[in-house]
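I'll show an entry:

:::
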Amino acid sequence: MKVLNLYAGIGGNRKLWEDVEVTAVELDPKIAAIYQDFFPDDTMIIGDAHQYLLDHYKEFDFIWSSPPCPTHSRLRRSLAVESGQNEPVFPDMKLYEEIIFIQSHFKGLYCIENVISYYDPLIKPQTINRHYFWANFIIRDVRMHTNNIQYGGVGNWQERLGFDLSSYTGIDKRKILRNCVIPELGSLILDCARGNTQKTLVESINSKRLRINDP
């Protein structure tokens, strides 16, 4: 299966994928370099994922897209409106551009992921835990223990996600890790796309609860 992994980050969603040929697109060269260290066999494109999708979507069997989420998030809006810590901004409509484009033109399987927004979604998604998913297949619902995840530190997230960033400098490790899709969820979604709806990862996911008292 040829997979296009857009806005790849360090590859949380991709970590447990097997039997795939992955092309990853990431704008930040430092983050792209970390992804490449973890997944040396993947093709890494450093560039604009939005444009790459438009230019290359026909080349793949499965597309995963995780466009930037801050302008859609409830937390950022509450900080802007209620506490004045952030300036109000327009929601980045590239999210919906990609949903409409992929739904209308792509012939393969797809999953587009984002946070639950502070507004009613303009296109109805599937909802799992703290995220929206737009996909052309049914994603099996799972309940993950996500209590107090916003308070976890770098040590928490490295253990939970299985990524060791200790050797990297000049990056916001906590932000990068928090932006990762939990690997078990990424694996489950790809399984559902392939039609393997019998595989269950609930016990695996729930066995890795975040311990917020770790350093």
